[in-house]
Amino acid sequence: MQARRKRSLSRRAFLKRSGQAGLGGLALTVGAGALCHGPRAFAQPGSASTREFHLEARQVRWELAPGKRIKAMTYGQVPGPELRLHEGERVRVVFTNALAEPTTLHWHGVDVPNAMDGVPGLTQKPVAPGETFVYEFEARPAGTRWYHTHFASVTQLDLGLYAPLIIEPAQSDPFPFDREYTLVLDDWSTGSRPALPRTVEGTARARGSMGGMMGRGMGGMMECMMGRGGMRGGMMMGGGRTPAYDTMTINGKAYPATEPLMVRKGERVRLRLINASADHTHIVRLSGHRLQVTHTDGNPLAQPVEVDAVPITPSERYDVQFVADHPGVWLLSCAEPGHARAGEQVQVIYKGHENASPVAPAGAVGDLQAWHYGLGQGRTLLPSPSGQTHAFDLILSGGMMGSDAWTINGQQYPEVDPLRLRQGDLVRVRFLNHSMEAHPMHLHGQSFRVLSINGRPLARPLVKDSVDVEAHMGAVEVELVASNPGDWLFHCHKPMHMEGGMMTLVQIS
Ligand code: C2O
Ligand code: CU
Fold first, then answer.
1. 41-93 per-position pLDDT tens digit
2. Residue 141, preceding peptide bond in cis (omega within 30° of 0)
3. Atom of ligand 1 nearest to the CA of 503
4. pTM recorded for the entire structure
5. What confidence tens digit (pLDDT) does each residue in 406-453 have?
């Protein structure tokens, strides 16, 4: 606990709660000024129970690694400042757009009121350059969430407009830990290295073995070809104009510039993994240690699931834990071909062993036991239904012959037939992927249960807000209880796909 506190403070000094945080009425400024000049916290009269944050979007030069500077769009830094909230507390975020183009803020995985959801043209007008917009909501549910732009995601999300949002549970945490780190994964296109193979197929979690994932079908072949030949990602079949990603980062830095994770022997360490990538699934593993998955998209499992590696598709979050029982210096890295070399590694250093040389993960990727949806047992977290029952089939297609058009039931957003629901309705949505790329489908405003993957029912449905639907006839069935009224997007989280039209609308009245 002590270690965790200390660590939290050093990493989020600019977000620091002053000693009076518990008294309420404290506002936090996390905008540009605060980042440059240290913490600024000031009492805010007249609204004792609302915590206020200030955020600003602006362009900066960002150093991914020494000598590798890019133009990034940020909330001051990459990733933006981590917001730490308590479940149930009221939050006000005063957001200023200092970019040269419009933008919005979306609270991914947070059950916000519809008007606070940050979808331009649907829930609000885009925030114009120089303008300020105030977001207000209650922080729930607890868990690892994130916030990001929802405007022109092909550029804005890709260039760094994202950050963690952690909601600490009001009740005691079901999986206590001594220390925690938040790790945000991202892919970058810098033009300075050969392009990496694209994640085309998806994570094949339901098959339960990495062998199945790597070896199979067209995507597997493509990955091999591209891995060797450095073929540009944009040339991929079905890839359209997807940028050629060549650099991978953890918390905005490519190894060896990633900030080491310090641990002490005996500690239980939680890692909050967030995949902010536009295109890539990552497979996180830690040499010398196994990982226990405890949360899917921020929602606790019935019990931890121990694996060697955790595949994480764009927009997903996993909380994992490990017990620091193996002193030394280890590498947490991505097992996807080429990703570790492209920067996706960070050292895990045991106190007192700082001078040991880092040990890379050993063993063939195909032999790893990887997390997949079928391994987890979810908890009953969603409300009970009280209305009608509906079922929808949503066919995902597009990207043929390099086209940038992506569809749901043949329709491109905004020309879509919404799923019309009433509060309390129980709704089954079955996704069927007729395209040659995987689609991480994300629902705004409320989470859903994952009922089955590729026809195989899950014993105890996982609670999530993003689910990967594999390429080549991948099928996923989810169930939601329409609980949050408003117009909500249900969309693929790959920016090229969402802006290519792969979004639909869930209307809850
Ligand atoms: Cu991460 Cu439409 O959201
Ligand atoms: Cu997609």
1. 333 444 558 999 999 999 999 999 998 999 999 999 999 999 999 999 999 99
2. yes
3. 2
4. 0.86
5. 999 999 999 999 999 999 999 999 999 999 999 999 999 999 999 999
Q: 357 C-alpha vs ligand 1 centroid, how far in Å? A: 39
| Residue type for position 270 | R
Contact 71, 159 (CB under 8 A): yes
Q: What are the structure tokens assigned to 40, written together?
A: 């600024």
Residues with CB under 6 A from ligand 1: 106, 108, 148, 150, 315, 442, 444, 489, 491, 493
CA distances from 386 to 57, 422, 423, 427 (A): 41, 10, 8, 11
CA-based nearest residue to 148, from 119, 124, 170, 189: 119
- Give one DSSP letter per residue of 128-179, joined into a string: -TT-EEEEEEE--S-EEEEEE--SSHHHHTTTT-EEEEEEE-SSPPSS--SE
- DSSP H helix total and E strand total for the chain: 6, 32
* Residue 181 in tokens: 């780190």
> What distance in Å separates the CA atoms of residue 288 and residue 70, rounded to the nearest whole number?
34
Radius of gyration of the chain (CA): 21
Q: Looking at the CA of residue 150, tell me the nearest atom of ligand 1.
A: 2
Secondary structure of 175-217 as H, E, C letters: CCCCEEEEEEEEEECCCCCCCCCCCCCCCCHHHCCHHHHHHCH
In the numeric block, the tokens 């999986």 are attached to 175
